[in-house]
Amino acid sequence: MNKTKILLVEDEIIISDAIMRYFEAKDYRVVGQAVSFETGLDMFLTHKPDITLMDIRLRGERTGIELAEIIKSHDPNHPIIFLTSQVDEQTINRAKTVIPAAYLSKPIQKQSLFASVAVAEFALKARHLETVYLQIKSENIKIPIEHISHIAADHIYSKIHMLDDGSKSIRMSLSAILELLPPESFCRVHRSYIINTTKVSHMENQSIIVAGHSIPVSRSKKSELKEMLSLS
């Protein structure tokens, strides 16, 4: 099995070395350790990592967010996990523009780091597979994508509804789950709902019928949804 390739862009060598040891112990492959924008970009282009862990404050004048923007211009779907001590609103809002896979504040907790990497890995796999892997009660569960009708927010959980009327609850946000699903088939139609567009029967005025379930549609999502469904 090919190891997941990880690029570390972190200007604090002690932190970078500690993270590298974490990953090596878990059988990941760290393809490079960069401390600046320039070395980070060079390593990304040379080694073509699967996931990049990125500090926002780097050596030199250019930031990790700027590097993330360049990386995303090469590969819009490349997972970037920010590692930073900067948690002010302005920095977070700027980081959100590159749609990171995660945003972890220092000091980095090993459990949170591995959880974020696992989500990024699942997103990579989901683009190529007909199943999605989700961690439910500490167990990785394989769910056939074609069996999902819709997903609903349920307080701190999300509930995945299946075509057989069964459901599975997972402690993950809708946004994180959507990253794991093929964008050509799944759409967030409301702040509380994701639907499988291949299971839509018809649209009504303020809702859409998915596998017999009436799902509300936000006004702002109507045009996007009609385009996906090729409706006029």
List the helices and strands and how they pair.
Elements: E1 5-9, H1 13-25, E2 29-34, H2 37-47, E3 51-55, H3 64-74, E4 80-84, H4 89-96, E5 102-105, H5 110-126, E6 131-136, E7 139-144, E8 148-154, E9 157-162, E10 167-170, H6 174-180, E11 186-190, E12 193-196, E13 200-203, E14 207-210, E15 213-216, H7 222-228
Parallel strand pairs: 1-2, 1-3, 3-4, 4-5
Antiparallel strand pairs: 6-7, 8-9, 8-12, 9-10, 11-12, 13-14, 14-15
Task: Note down, in words, how this protein is organized.
- The protein has 232 residues and is an alpha/beta fold.
- It has 2 domains: 5-126, Rossmann fold (3-Layer(aba) Sandwich); 131-228, LytTr DNA-binding domain (OB fold (Dihydrolipoamide Acetyltransferase, E2P), Beta Barrel), CATH 2.40.50.
- 32% of the residues lie in helices and 32% in strands.
- It contains 7 helices and 15 strands.
- The protein has helices at residues 13-25, 37-47, 64-74, 89-96, 110-126, 174-180, 222-228; strands spanning 5-9, 29-34, 51-55, 80-84, 102-105, 131-136, 139-144, 148-154, 157-162, 167-170, 186-190, 193-196, 200-203, 207-210, 213-216.
- A 5-stranded parallel sheet has the order 2-1-3-4-5, sandwiched between helices. The protein has a 5-stranded antiparallel sheet with strand order 10-9-8-12-11, with no helix packed on it. The protein has a 3-stranded antiparallel sheet with strand order 13-14-15, with no helix packed on it.
- Strand 14 (207-210) and strand 15 (213-216) form a beta hairpin.
- The model has no long low-confidence stretch (mean pLDDT 87).
